[in-house]
Amino acid sequence: MAERRRRRKSWWWPFIESEPEPEPTPSPTFKEPWRKISWGEKQRDLQYVQEYRPENGDIKHLRILLYGPVGGGKSSFINSVSTVMRGRTTIPAAASATTSDTSFTRQYKTHQIRKGRGNPKTFYPFVFNDMMGLEEGSDSGVRADDIKLAMKGHVIEDHKFNPACPLSDEDPGYNQTPSPDDRVHVLVCVISANSSEIKEPILQKMSSIRETARDLGIPQMAIVTNIDTACGEIEKDLKNVYKSKHLRKKMKDFSSAVGIPMNCICPVKNYSDELEIDDDVDSLILSALRLMIHFGDDFIEDM
Q1: Fewer beta carbons under 10 A from the terminal one: N or C of the chain?
Q2: What PANTHER family does its record include (predicted)?
Q3: pLDDT tens digits for 40-57?
Q4: Strands (E), 122-229
Q5: How far apart are CA 111 and CA 128, in angstroms?
């Protein structure tokens, strides 16, 4: 009898349905990077920037204007470039570590990047202009018309922006006779990878600014900041930056919304909690800086 039960068990046992295998979790990264970058070539890129001189002899400084929504990291990017070029932590631009809907920067500031130490002070032949961020309301944040005037060189140093009233040619902050050095040579939009979808009022302001830059022939590009906090894979290893599916989608969505081509958008990680120099952080910053110099130098050659 027991033998019969054993035979019966062996007959039906193999036909018991097993639990289905769970679907594999999709990988958050691509197998291969979708854009190439020369990791480990920091010194080559650094040397290129250190040796740069404007082709146009009438231009002393290549002027790079940073603009974009509040909290994008404009001031932090200037500090990060200074840190890379000087080989130590520096903070020439006042930046805020808190998240806010209003701009921390209020004035129009030109930031030169100093070369090393000693006197007399010497600076690299490119400068960054920092300004108030774009906000949703018509009476908050920097006005699009003020950014357009800055591109033409009409905004003087330390001008304090008034969100309720655009700069006019009768104001003391208006430069009546801008020189070729005062004009902007490359326009850079700065946006955080952590930001949600850009609101329509800000998109309209950005579109208006981009149209004016187009009419002036000023080259345009963008940098995407905070990539490490936006993607866990990048936070684990910065070299995953061009393997991250999340970041690539974020960049493509931004490109579609604003109209800046993907090959004119560079992801960067600003220095934030580090006390020491990191070669991988530097590589991304230098990659973006080289592109700014390429675009800007092409523009001033034809001025």
Answers
A1: N
A2: INTERFERON-INDUCED PROTEIN 44, VWFA DOMAIN-CONTAINING PROTEIN-RELATED
A3: 889 999 999 999 999 888
A4: 123-130, 186-192, 220-225
A5: 5
